[in-house]
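Hi there. Long-time user, first ticket. I'm pasting a complex I've been working with (about 322 residues overall). I'd like to know whether the download I got is complete or cut off, because the file seemed smaller than I expected. Thanks.
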Amino acid sequence: MQHTITVLVENKFGVLARVSGLFARRGFNIESLAVSITDDPTVSRMTIVVGGDNTVLEQISKQLNKLIDVIKVFDYTGLPVVERELAMIKVNAEAKNRAELMQIVDIFRGKIIDISDRSFTIEVTGSLDKVNAIESLLSPYGIQEMVRTGKIAMIRGARLG
Amino acid sequence: MQHTITVLVENKFGVLARVSGLFARRGFNIESLAVSITDDPTVSRMTIVVGGDNTVLEQISKQLNKLIDVIKVFDYTGLPVVERELAMIKVNAEAKNRAELMQIVDIFRGKIIDISDRSFTIEVTGSLDKVNAIESLLSPYGIQEMVRTGKIAMIRGARLG
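Hi, the file is complete. Here it is re-exported in full:
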């Protein structure tokens, strides 16, 4: 089972190494990770997607909460969330395929953000499933390169409290 | 100076800890990091934004290349790239402010992806500067929560070779 966790940490060096070290020591594989600044420059926010059952997740949460520099841990399992990831996909685009490719991009509400005589670079945002779906539709044309941000997530509705 | 590096690594556990440990030991602060799968399930792709001069970057590159499980390191400094990040911003949205907020979202080609009686959640993609710009335009309304993926990057044009 996949879980999504958000970890708010002090924006200091070494924090990322401590957090990822904890996952590695426990043998948990991180499926995706996005770390960036927040509106408070002293705080970074990590969104971690990790596999494992609920017991495993509880352990991770407890261990994370013990780490210095960890401010807060949220586990979104079972909660109503909005979640998105961003992907850029560079695909073979010869003249004869362009119309077809543009249709696929339209259907997924993607954008073509770069073009060369042999390629399109497409930007698309959505759930993991949506990104997987466009990837599999594009792959017959030949994907030259793909990069994904990993998922970010937020509880639906106004902030509690 | 900010540098953007892409590191292709074997998708095994512990790799992230080794890479982030290297940055921590050398005292380099990672400003953002995005790690996700690629079209090859055995390979993960990390996009790292890090501060430092060119000498520092060369050192990092060399050290990374020595790490087991690191397949390839690219430094995009000075090269033509397309780069994007994704942000979700939850902002106070009372009825009287909604029209104004929707204008800002339109100008930045964002999307409103969740709504409650007191808030909008906005999705926006773009350069770091664009995300910073919409953040500062929204902040007078009161940002309840923000999450950013960190930057991902790709060389412009078709894949070389």
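A couple of notes from our side: Chain B has a mean pLDDT of 92. The two ends of chain B are 30 Å apart (CA to CA).
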